[in-house]
Automatic annotation (TrEMBL):
It holds the Pfam family Sigma54_CBD. PANTHER family: RNA POLYMERASE SIGMA-54 FACTOR. This is RNA polymerase sigma-54 factor. It comes from Geopseudomonas aromaticivorans. Belongs to the sigma-54 factor family. Residues 43-101 are annotated as: Disordered. Signal peptide: none annotated. Residues 338-496 form the RNA polymerase sigma factor 54 DNA-binding domain.
Amino acid sequence: MKHSLVLKMGQQLTMTPQLQQAIRLLQLSTLDLQQEIQEALDSNPMLERQEEGDDFDNSDPLAESEPSHSATSHDSTVSTSSERNPDSLDEADQWGERIPSELPVDTAWEDIYQTSASSLPVSDDDEWDFTTRTSAGESLHSHLLWQLNLAPMSDHDRLIAMSIIDAINNDGYLDESLEEILASLDPELDIELDEVEMVLHRVQQFEPLGIGARDLSECLLLQLNQLPASTPWLDEARRVARDHLDLLGSRDYSQLMRRLRVKEDDLRQIVELIQRLNPRPGSQIETSEAEYVVPDVIVRKDNERWLVELNPDAMPRLRVNPHYAGLVRRADTSADNTYMRNQLQEARWFIKSLLSRNETLMKVATQIVELQRGFLEYGEEAMKPLVLHDIAEAVGMHESTISRVTTQKYMHTPRGIFELKYFFSSHVSTSEGGECSSTAIRAIIKKLVAAENPKKPLSDSKIAGLLEAQGIQVARRTIAKYRESLGIAPSSERKRLV
Protein backbone atom coordinates (compact mmCIF):
# COMPACT_ATOMS: atom_id res chain seq x y z
CA MET A 1 0.00 0.00 0.00
CA LYS A 2 1.42 3.33 -1.06
CA HIS A 3 1.39 6.21 1.42
CA SER A 4 0.19 9.57 0.16
CA LEU A 5 -1.19 12.87 1.38
CA VAL A 6 -4.84 13.54 0.55
CA LEU A 7 -6.70 16.79 1.16
CA LYS A 8 -10.40 16.35 1.94
CA MET A 9 -13.18 18.73 2.86
CA GLY A 10 -15.98 17.64 5.15
CA GLN A 11 -18.38 18.71 7.84
CA GLN A 12 -19.06 17.08 11.14
CA LEU A 13 -20.98 18.02 14.26
CA THR A 14 -18.84 18.54 17.33
CA MET A 15 -20.79 17.96 20.53
CA THR A 16 -19.27 20.74 22.59
CA PRO A 17 -20.20 21.20 26.26
CA GLN A 18 -22.15 24.33 25.32
CA LEU A 19 -24.17 22.43 22.71
CA GLN A 20 -24.82 19.61 25.16
CA GLN A 21 -26.08 22.17 27.66
CA ALA A 22 -28.39 23.74 25.08
CA ILE A 23 -29.88 20.38 24.13
CA ARG A 24 -30.29 19.35 27.76
CA LEU A 25 -32.08 22.59 28.67
CA LEU A 26 -34.31 22.17 25.63
CA GLN A 27 -35.80 18.92 26.87
CA LEU A 28 -36.14 19.81 30.55
CA SER A 29 -39.63 20.36 31.95
CA THR A 30 -40.47 23.72 33.49
CA LEU A 31 -40.02 22.52 37.06
CA ASP A 32 -36.72 20.83 36.25
CA LEU A 33 -35.57 23.91 34.35
CA GLN A 34 -36.32 26.17 37.32
CA GLN A 35 -34.21 23.88 39.49
CA GLU A 36 -31.42 23.98 36.91
CA ILE A 37 -31.56 27.77 36.83
CA GLN A 38 -31.41 27.96 40.61
CA GLU A 39 -28.34 25.70 40.65
CA ALA A 40 -26.70 27.94 38.04
CA LEU A 41 -27.47 31.03 40.12
CA ASP A 42 -25.99 29.40 43.21
CA SER A 43 -22.80 28.27 41.48
CA ASN A 44 -22.07 31.19 39.12
CA PRO A 45 -21.58 34.65 40.69
CA MET A 46 -21.88 36.28 37.27
CA LEU A 47 -25.56 35.32 36.98
CA GLU A 48 -28.35 37.14 38.75
CA ARG A 49 -32.09 37.53 38.50
CA GLN A 50 -33.51 40.64 36.94
CA GLU A 51 -36.14 42.00 39.27
CA GLU A 52 -39.20 43.90 38.14
CA GLY A 53 -38.41 47.49 37.23
CA ASP A 54 -34.65 46.98 36.92
CA ASP A 55 -33.05 49.11 34.25
CA PHE A 56 -29.77 48.10 32.75
CA ASP A 57 -27.63 48.61 29.69
CA ASN A 58 -28.66 46.55 26.69
CA SER A 59 -25.45 47.22 24.80
CA ASP A 60 -24.19 43.71 25.49
CA PRO A 61 -23.65 41.79 22.23
CA LEU A 62 -25.77 38.96 23.58
CA ALA A 63 -28.71 41.25 24.28
CA GLU A 64 -28.47 42.71 20.78
CA SER A 65 -29.03 39.30 19.27
CA GLU A 66 -32.01 38.53 21.50
CA PRO A 67 -34.99 37.28 19.46
CA SER A 68 -38.23 39.19 19.62
CA HIS A 69 -41.53 37.32 19.10
CA SER A 70 -44.12 39.71 20.39
CA ALA A 71 -44.66 42.12 23.22
CA THR A 72 -45.81 39.38 25.53
CA SER A 73 -43.33 36.74 24.48
CA HIS A 74 -40.53 39.30 24.82
CA ASP A 75 -41.39 39.76 28.47
CA SER A 76 -40.94 36.06 29.10
CA THR A 77 -37.56 35.76 27.41
CA VAL A 78 -34.31 36.02 29.26
CA SER A 79 -32.59 39.38 29.14
CA THR A 80 -28.91 40.02 29.66
CA SER A 81 -26.79 43.00 30.48
CA SER A 82 -23.20 43.80 31.24
CA GLU A 83 -21.77 47.15 32.25
CA ARG A 84 -18.07 46.99 31.45
CA ASN A 85 -15.15 49.24 32.05
CA PRO A 86 -12.90 50.23 29.12
CA ASP A 87 -10.22 47.71 30.12
CA SER A 88 -12.56 44.76 29.67
CA LEU A 89 -14.43 46.06 26.62
CA ASP A 90 -12.27 44.51 23.91
CA GLU A 91 -12.02 41.17 25.69
CA ALA A 92 -15.77 40.94 26.24
CA ASP A 93 -16.47 41.83 22.61
CA GLN A 94 -14.27 38.96 21.51
CA TRP A 95 -16.20 36.56 23.74
CA GLY A 96 -19.47 37.83 22.35
CA GLU A 97 -18.30 37.17 18.80
CA ARG A 98 -17.57 33.55 19.67
CA ILE A 99 -21.20 33.00 20.73
CA PRO A 100 -23.31 32.32 17.63
CA SER A 101 -26.63 34.07 17.20
CA GLU A 102 -28.44 30.72 17.06
CA LEU A 103 -27.33 27.62 18.90
CA PRO A 104 -27.40 24.50 16.68
CA VAL A 105 -29.62 22.48 18.97
CA ASP A 106 -31.35 20.85 16.00
CA THR A 107 -29.34 17.63 16.01
CA ALA A 108 -29.92 13.91 16.06
CA TRP A 109 -28.05 13.49 19.32
CA GLU A 110 -29.49 10.74 21.52
CA ASP A 111 -31.55 11.85 24.50
CA ILE A 112 -29.05 10.87 27.15
CA TYR A 113 -30.38 13.38 29.68
CA GLN A 114 -33.73 11.83 30.51
CA THR A 115 -35.51 13.57 33.36
CA SER A 116 -38.88 13.16 34.95
CA ALA A 117 -41.30 15.77 36.12
CA SER A 118 -40.42 16.88 39.60
CA SER A 119 -43.05 16.96 42.29
CA LEU A 120 -43.26 19.76 44.78
CA PRO A 121 -42.82 18.46 48.33
CA VAL A 122 -45.63 18.91 50.79
CA SER A 123 -44.51 20.87 53.82
CA ASP A 124 -44.98 19.22 57.21
CA ASP A 125 -46.67 21.11 59.99
CA ASP A 126 -45.83 20.49 63.62
CA GLU A 127 -49.50 20.57 64.57
CA TRP A 128 -51.89 17.97 63.16
CA ASP A 129 -55.59 17.66 63.64
CA PHE A 130 -58.25 15.22 62.49
CA THR A 131 -58.94 17.02 59.22
CA THR A 132 -55.30 16.75 58.13
CA ARG A 133 -54.87 13.06 58.74
CA THR A 134 -56.12 12.15 55.27
CA SER A 135 -54.17 14.85 53.44
CA ALA A 136 -51.91 14.06 50.50
CA GLY A 137 -48.73 12.26 51.46
CA GLU A 138 -50.16 10.20 54.36
CA SER A 139 -50.09 6.43 54.04
CA LEU A 140 -52.94 4.12 54.94
CA HIS A 141 -50.67 2.34 57.41
CA SER A 142 -49.88 5.52 59.37
CA HIS A 143 -53.55 6.55 59.27
CA LEU A 144 -54.60 3.26 60.90
CA LEU A 145 -51.82 3.44 63.49
CA TRP A 146 -52.96 6.96 64.39
CA GLN A 147 -56.47 5.61 65.10
CA LEU A 148 -55.00 2.66 67.01
CA ASN A 149 -53.18 5.03 69.35
CA LEU A 150 -56.51 6.71 70.16
CA ALA A 151 -58.42 3.45 70.72
CA PRO A 152 -58.77 2.20 74.31
CA MET A 153 -57.07 -1.19 74.12
CA SER A 154 -54.80 -3.33 76.28
CA ASP A 155 -51.14 -3.73 75.40
CA HIS A 156 -51.80 -7.37 74.57
CA ASP A 157 -54.53 -6.51 72.03
CA ARG A 158 -52.58 -3.52 70.72
CA LEU A 159 -49.72 -5.83 69.70
CA ILE A 160 -52.19 -8.03 67.79
CA ALA A 161 -53.75 -4.98 66.14
CA MET A 162 -50.35 -3.76 64.93
CA SER A 163 -49.73 -7.15 63.30
CA ILE A 164 -53.13 -6.96 61.61
CA ILE A 165 -52.50 -3.42 60.34
CA ASP A 166 -49.14 -4.52 58.92
CA ALA A 167 -50.99 -7.19 56.91
CA ILE A 168 -53.44 -4.71 55.31
CA ASN A 169 -52.59 -3.72 51.72
CA ASN A 170 -53.07 -0.32 50.06
CA ASP A 171 -56.58 -1.28 48.91
CA GLY A 172 -57.60 -1.91 52.50
CA TYR A 173 -57.82 -5.70 52.38
CA LEU A 174 -56.17 -8.19 54.75
CA ASP A 175 -53.45 -9.97 52.78
CA GLU A 176 -52.73 -12.66 55.36
CA SER A 177 -55.05 -15.15 57.02
CA LEU A 178 -55.71 -15.04 60.74
CA GLU A 179 -53.68 -18.24 61.16
CA GLU A 180 -50.66 -16.61 59.50
CA ILE A 181 -51.01 -13.53 61.71
CA LEU A 182 -51.21 -15.76 64.79
CA ALA A 183 -48.08 -17.65 63.72
CA SER A 184 -46.17 -14.36 63.39
CA LEU A 185 -46.83 -13.44 67.02
CA ASP A 186 -44.61 -14.47 69.93
CA PRO A 187 -45.67 -17.97 71.09
CA GLU A 188 -44.83 -17.05 74.69
CA LEU A 189 -47.79 -14.64 74.71
CA ASP A 190 -50.13 -17.63 74.48
CA ILE A 191 -52.52 -15.92 72.06
CA GLU A 192 -55.44 -17.85 70.62
CA LEU A 193 -57.11 -17.54 67.24
CA ASP A 194 -60.33 -16.18 68.75
CA GLU A 195 -58.39 -13.26 70.24
CA VAL A 196 -56.92 -12.38 66.83
CA GLU A 197 -60.39 -12.44 65.26
CA MET A 198 -61.80 -10.29 68.04
CA VAL A 199 -59.07 -7.66 67.55
CA LEU A 200 -59.70 -7.81 63.77
CA HIS A 201 -63.32 -6.82 64.39
CA ARG A 202 -62.02 -3.85 66.40
CA VAL A 203 -59.72 -2.79 63.57
CA GLN A 204 -62.59 -3.13 61.08
CA GLN A 205 -64.38 -0.35 62.95
CA PHE A 206 -61.63 2.11 61.98
CA GLU A 207 -61.92 4.65 59.18
CA PRO A 208 -62.30 4.30 56.25
CA LEU A 209 -65.29 1.98 56.43
CA GLY A 210 -64.63 -1.51 55.08
CA ILE A 211 -60.99 -1.60 56.14
CA GLY A 212 -59.44 -4.95 57.09
CA ALA A 213 -61.88 -7.08 55.06
CA ARG A 214 -60.75 -10.49 53.84
CA ASP A 215 -62.74 -10.37 50.60
CA LEU A 216 -65.07 -8.11 48.64
CA SER A 217 -68.20 -9.55 50.21
CA GLU A 218 -66.98 -8.79 53.75
CA CYS A 219 -65.85 -5.32 52.66
CA LEU A 220 -69.31 -4.41 51.35
CA LEU A 221 -71.04 -5.93 54.38
CA LEU A 222 -68.86 -3.89 56.75
CA GLN A 223 -69.96 -0.72 55.00
CA LEU A 224 -73.62 -1.75 54.85
CA ASN A 225 -73.63 -2.54 58.56
CA GLN A 226 -72.65 1.04 59.30
CA LEU A 227 -75.73 2.44 57.53
CA PRO A 228 -78.83 3.38 59.53
CA ALA A 229 -81.32 0.56 59.99
CA SER A 230 -83.98 2.69 58.31
CA THR A 231 -82.07 2.71 55.00
CA PRO A 232 -84.39 1.41 52.24
CA TRP A 233 -83.56 -2.04 50.86
CA LEU A 234 -80.72 -2.52 53.35
CA ASP A 235 -81.51 -6.18 54.09
CA GLU A 236 -81.74 -7.04 50.39
CA ALA A 237 -78.42 -5.29 49.72
CA ARG A 238 -76.83 -7.38 52.47
CA ARG A 239 -78.18 -10.55 50.86
CA VAL A 240 -76.71 -9.56 47.52
CA ALA A 241 -73.32 -8.74 49.08
CA ARG A 242 -73.30 -11.96 51.07
CA ASP A 243 -74.75 -14.51 48.64
CA HIS A 244 -75.18 -13.14 45.10
CA LEU A 245 -72.12 -11.04 44.23
CA ASP A 246 -71.36 -13.37 41.31
CA LEU A 247 -74.76 -12.64 39.76
CA LEU A 248 -74.31 -8.92 40.27
CA GLY A 249 -70.86 -9.06 38.70
CA SER A 250 -72.18 -10.84 35.61
CA ARG A 251 -75.18 -8.45 35.50
CA ASP A 252 -77.64 -11.33 35.55
CA TYR A 253 -80.47 -9.09 36.72
CA SER A 254 -83.25 -11.49 35.85
CA GLN A 255 -81.75 -14.16 38.09
CA LEU A 256 -81.25 -11.61 40.86
CA MET A 257 -84.90 -10.58 40.69
CA ARG A 258 -85.97 -14.22 41.05
CA ARG A 259 -83.61 -14.86 43.98
CA LEU A 260 -84.59 -11.71 45.85
CA ARG A 261 -88.24 -11.82 44.72
CA VAL A 262 -88.29 -8.17 43.80
CA LYS A 263 -89.33 -6.19 40.74
CA GLU A 264 -87.02 -4.38 38.33
CA ASP A 265 -87.49 -0.93 39.89
CA ASP A 266 -86.78 -2.35 43.33
CA LEU A 267 -83.67 -4.16 42.10
CA ARG A 268 -82.43 -0.93 40.56
CA GLN A 269 -82.55 0.78 43.97
CA ILE A 270 -80.76 -2.16 45.60
CA VAL A 271 -78.00 -2.04 43.00
CA GLU A 272 -77.67 1.72 43.36
CA LEU A 273 -77.25 1.29 47.12
CA ILE A 274 -74.43 -1.22 46.60
CA GLN A 275 -72.78 0.92 43.93
CA ARG A 276 -72.48 3.78 46.41
CA LEU A 277 -70.11 1.63 48.47
CA ASN A 278 -66.34 1.66 47.98
CA PRO A 279 -64.84 -1.71 46.92
CA ARG A 280 -61.35 -0.33 47.61
CA PRO A 281 -61.64 1.60 50.90
CA GLY A 282 -57.88 2.03 51.21
CA SER A 283 -57.85 4.21 48.12
CA GLN A 284 -59.57 6.99 50.09
CA ILE A 285 -56.26 7.66 51.83
CA GLU A 286 -54.07 9.39 49.26
CA THR A 287 -50.54 8.00 49.55
CA SER A 288 -48.86 9.93 46.74
CA GLU A 289 -47.85 13.54 46.78
CA ALA A 290 -49.43 15.89 44.29
CA GLU A 291 -47.50 16.78 41.16
CA TYR A 292 -47.96 20.26 39.80
CA VAL A 293 -47.95 21.22 36.15
CA VAL A 294 -46.67 24.65 35.17
CA PRO A 295 -47.65 25.54 31.59
CA ASP A 296 -44.80 26.69 29.38
CA VAL A 297 -47.06 28.31 26.77
CA ILE A 298 -50.32 30.23 27.12
CA VAL A 299 -52.81 30.31 24.24
CA ARG A 300 -55.66 32.82 24.24
CA LYS A 301 -58.10 34.27 21.74
CA ASP A 302 -58.11 37.97 21.01
CA ASN A 303 -60.31 39.53 18.32
CA GLU A 304 -60.87 36.21 16.51
CA ARG A 305 -57.12 35.52 16.55
CA TRP A 306 -55.31 32.87 18.57
CA LEU A 307 -52.24 34.32 20.31
CA VAL A 308 -49.35 32.21 21.60
CA GLU A 309 -47.27 33.55 24.48
CA LEU A 310 -44.56 32.16 26.71
CA ASN A 311 -45.60 31.92 30.33
CA PRO A 312 -43.82 34.84 32.05
CA ASP A 313 -44.15 33.19 35.47
CA ALA A 314 -42.44 29.98 34.38
CA MET A 315 -39.12 31.53 33.38
CA PRO A 316 -37.14 33.94 35.57
CA ARG A 317 -35.32 36.68 33.69
CA LEU A 318 -31.55 36.41 34.07
CA ARG A 319 -28.72 38.78 33.30
CA VAL A 320 -24.99 39.05 33.75
CA ASN A 321 -24.09 40.91 36.92
CA PRO A 322 -22.69 44.23 35.63
CA HIS A 323 -20.50 44.82 38.67
CA TYR A 324 -18.68 41.49 38.53
CA ALA A 325 -18.42 41.65 34.73
CA GLY A 326 -16.73 45.02 35.05
CA LEU A 327 -14.04 43.51 37.29
CA VAL A 328 -12.72 41.31 34.50
CA ARG A 329 -9.40 42.78 33.31
CA ARG A 330 -7.92 42.45 29.86
CA ALA A 331 -4.58 40.64 29.41
CA ASP A 332 -4.59 39.47 33.04
CA THR A 333 -3.74 35.78 33.47
CA SER A 334 -4.02 35.65 37.24
CA ALA A 335 -6.03 32.82 38.78
CA ASP A 336 -8.78 35.12 40.05
CA ASN A 337 -9.19 36.91 36.72
CA THR A 338 -9.18 33.63 34.79
CA TYR A 339 -11.87 32.25 37.09
CA MET A 340 -14.08 35.33 36.65
CA ARG A 341 -13.57 35.27 32.89
CA ASN A 342 -14.60 31.61 32.70
CA GLN A 343 -17.64 32.26 34.86
CA LEU A 344 -18.64 35.16 32.63
CA GLN A 345 -18.36 32.98 29.54
CA GLU A 346 -20.41 30.20 31.17
CA ALA A 347 -23.05 32.71 32.25
CA ARG A 348 -23.43 34.04 28.71
CA TRP A 349 -23.65 30.54 27.26
CA PHE A 350 -26.27 29.61 29.82
CA ILE A 351 -28.36 32.68 29.02
CA LYS A 352 -27.96 32.05 25.30
CA SER A 353 -29.14 28.46 25.78
CA LEU A 354 -32.24 29.70 27.59
CA LEU A 355 -32.96 32.17 24.81
CA SER A 356 -32.59 29.44 22.23
CA ARG A 357 -34.91 27.17 24.22
CA ASN A 358 -37.61 29.85 24.42
CA GLU A 359 -37.35 30.66 20.74
CA THR A 360 -37.59 27.01 19.69
CA LEU A 361 -40.52 26.43 22.03
CA MET A 362 -42.34 29.43 20.61
CA LYS A 363 -41.82 28.26 17.02
CA VAL A 364 -43.16 24.77 17.73
CA ALA A 365 -46.10 25.93 19.88
CA THR A 366 -47.14 28.54 17.31
CA GLN A 367 -47.13 25.97 14.53
CA ILE A 368 -49.16 23.52 16.62
CA VAL A 369 -51.79 26.17 17.32
CA GLU A 370 -51.87 27.09 13.64
CA LEU A 371 -52.58 23.48 12.64
CA GLN A 372 -54.98 22.68 15.48
CA ARG A 373 -57.27 25.69 15.34
CA GLY A 374 -60.22 23.34 14.96
CA PHE A 375 -59.52 21.76 18.36
CA LEU A 376 -59.32 25.16 20.04
CA GLU A 377 -62.55 26.28 18.40
CA TYR A 378 -64.72 23.13 18.57
CA GLY A 379 -63.04 20.56 20.79
CA GLU A 380 -61.54 17.08 20.45
CA GLU A 381 -63.82 15.99 17.60
CA ALA A 382 -62.17 18.62 15.39
CA MET A 383 -58.61 17.49 16.15
CA LYS A 384 -56.56 17.03 12.98
CA PRO A 385 -54.04 14.23 12.38
CA LEU A 386 -50.54 15.46 13.21
CA VAL A 387 -47.11 13.82 13.46
CA LEU A 388 -43.68 15.12 14.42
CA HIS A 389 -42.59 15.23 10.80
CA ASP A 390 -45.29 17.79 9.95
CA ILE A 391 -44.05 20.26 12.58
CA ALA A 392 -40.39 19.55 11.81
CA GLU A 393 -40.95 20.32 8.15
CA ALA A 394 -42.90 23.50 8.91
CA VAL A 395 -40.31 25.00 11.29
CA GLY A 396 -37.24 23.61 9.51
CA MET A 397 -35.93 21.44 12.33
CA HIS A 398 -35.18 17.77 12.90
CA GLU A 399 -37.86 15.45 14.30
CA SER A 400 -35.64 14.65 17.31
CA THR A 401 -35.65 18.34 18.21
CA ILE A 402 -39.45 18.50 17.97
CA SER A 403 -39.63 15.43 20.20
CA ARG A 404 -37.46 17.13 22.83
CA VAL A 405 -39.47 20.33 22.68
CA THR A 406 -42.83 18.59 23.08
CA THR A 407 -41.79 16.26 25.92
CA GLN A 408 -42.95 17.45 29.36
CA LYS A 409 -43.93 20.85 27.97
CA TYR A 410 -47.48 22.02 28.58
CA MET A 411 -49.83 24.44 26.87
CA HIS A 412 -52.55 26.35 28.69
CA THR A 413 -55.62 26.75 26.48
CA PRO A 414 -59.23 27.79 27.13
CA ARG A 415 -60.05 24.06 27.01
CA GLY A 416 -57.53 23.11 29.66
CA ILE A 417 -53.83 22.35 30.09
CA PHE A 418 -52.40 19.79 27.67
CA GLU A 419 -48.96 18.38 27.03
CA LEU A 420 -47.69 19.38 23.62
CA LYS A 421 -47.52 15.71 22.63
CA TYR A 422 -51.30 15.53 23.12
CA PHE A 423 -51.79 17.38 19.86
CA PHE A 424 -50.02 14.65 17.88
CA SER A 425 -52.07 11.67 16.78
CA SER A 426 -52.26 9.11 14.01
CA HIS A 427 -54.99 9.11 11.37
CA VAL A 428 -57.49 6.81 9.67
CA SER A 429 -58.98 7.16 6.24
CA THR A 430 -62.46 8.41 5.49
CA SER A 431 -64.81 7.36 2.71
CA GLU A 432 -64.29 10.71 0.99
CA GLY A 433 -60.54 10.22 0.80
CA GLY A 434 -59.73 12.46 3.74
CA GLU A 435 -58.16 11.71 7.11
CA CYS A 436 -59.54 11.67 10.65
CA SER A 437 -57.47 11.97 13.80
CA SER A 438 -57.43 9.13 16.32
CA THR A 439 -58.08 11.71 19.05
CA ALA A 440 -61.24 12.81 17.25
CA ILE A 441 -62.35 9.19 16.92
CA ARG A 442 -61.87 8.64 20.66
CA ALA A 443 -63.99 11.73 21.34
CA ILE A 444 -66.75 10.41 19.06
CA ILE A 445 -66.65 7.00 20.76
CA LYS A 446 -66.91 8.66 24.17
CA LYS A 447 -69.86 10.71 22.97
CA LEU A 448 -71.65 7.67 21.52
CA VAL A 449 -71.19 5.65 24.71
CA ALA A 450 -72.45 8.53 26.85
CA ALA A 451 -75.65 8.72 24.78
CA GLU A 452 -76.30 4.96 24.52
CA ASN A 453 -79.24 3.10 26.03
CA PRO A 454 -77.99 1.62 29.34
CA LYS A 455 -80.22 -1.40 28.87
CA LYS A 456 -78.70 -2.10 25.44
CA PRO A 457 -75.17 -0.68 25.37
CA LEU A 458 -73.38 -0.37 22.04
CA SER A 459 -70.99 -3.15 21.10
CA ASP A 460 -67.67 -2.48 19.39
CA SER A 461 -69.12 -3.72 16.09
CA LYS A 462 -72.11 -1.42 16.44
CA ILE A 463 -69.84 1.57 17.16
CA ALA A 464 -67.75 0.70 14.11
CA GLY A 465 -70.94 0.67 12.03
CA LEU A 466 -72.02 4.08 13.35
CA LEU A 467 -68.60 5.53 12.53
CA GLU A 468 -68.73 4.01 9.06
CA ALA A 469 -72.09 5.73 8.55
CA GLN A 470 -70.26 9.01 9.24
CA GLY A 471 -67.64 8.13 6.64
CA ILE A 472 -64.94 7.01 9.13
CA GLN A 473 -63.55 3.56 8.36
CA VAL A 474 -62.37 1.96 11.60
CA ALA A 475 -61.98 -1.75 12.32
CA ARG A 476 -63.66 -3.33 15.33
CA ARG A 477 -60.26 -4.16 16.88
CA THR A 478 -59.29 -0.50 16.63
CA ILE A 479 -62.55 0.51 18.33
CA ALA A 480 -61.77 -1.90 21.17
CA LYS A 481 -58.26 -0.43 21.53
CA TYR A 482 -59.56 3.16 21.61
CA ARG A 483 -62.33 2.20 24.05
CA GLU A 484 -59.85 0.58 26.44
CA SER A 485 -57.57 3.62 26.27
CA LEU A 486 -60.54 5.76 27.36
CA GLY A 487 -61.23 3.46 30.31
CA ILE A 488 -64.63 2.42 28.94
CA ALA A 489 -65.74 -1.09 29.87
CA PRO A 490 -67.05 -3.58 27.29
CA SER A 491 -70.74 -3.52 26.44
CA SER A 492 -71.44 -6.54 28.66
CA GLU A 493 -70.15 -4.62 31.68
CA ARG A 494 -71.90 -1.36 30.81
CA LYS A 495 -75.38 -2.84 31.01
CA ARG A 496 -77.51 -1.03 33.60
CA LEU A 497 -81.01 -1.12 34.97
CA VAL A 498 -83.10 1.95 34.11
